[in-house]
Amino acid sequence: MSALMTKVLTVLSVVLSTAAWAQAAPAPVYRCPGNPVLYTDALSANEAKDKGCRTLEGSPITVIQGPAPKAKVVNAAVGGPASGGAAARPAEARVDPADQKARDTDSKRILAAELRKEEERLGALQKEFNAGEPERRGDERNYQKYTERVAELKASIARKEGDIVSIKREIAKLPQ
To answer: 75 lies in a domain?
Structure first.
């Protein structure tokens, strides 16, 4: 029994010392330039130097797996990939035409209300701007404050006009 115990202890000590040696001397991790940046421990010191890689020291690197790429759906009617590179939708995923028309009507109503609000805000800003000569306020004794307010009004008017153009563009995209 003693001889068997000695062999077991010897094998156990060899296994533990090998595991300790593997933990004590990890391979250096290199950060290699490029797009995307490459992090690797599979290079020798000379290869890393030739590629311009730097050794990373300190905390270990954590690798997070990204989602697997989706397989391309084959369009059965044509026998090839779906048109435009997009996945083909199954028939049950299609929207009922009546539901789509209701959605379009709701979208148009919401956009029209937003357009009215923006046009009212633009009108108020233009009235306050007074063709570049807004009335001075009591807190604007300093001319610099007045000019800053005029510049802010001008920028706000330009933003509102851009918003109105964008809303009109969205309305034009909707089916009539």
So the answer is: no
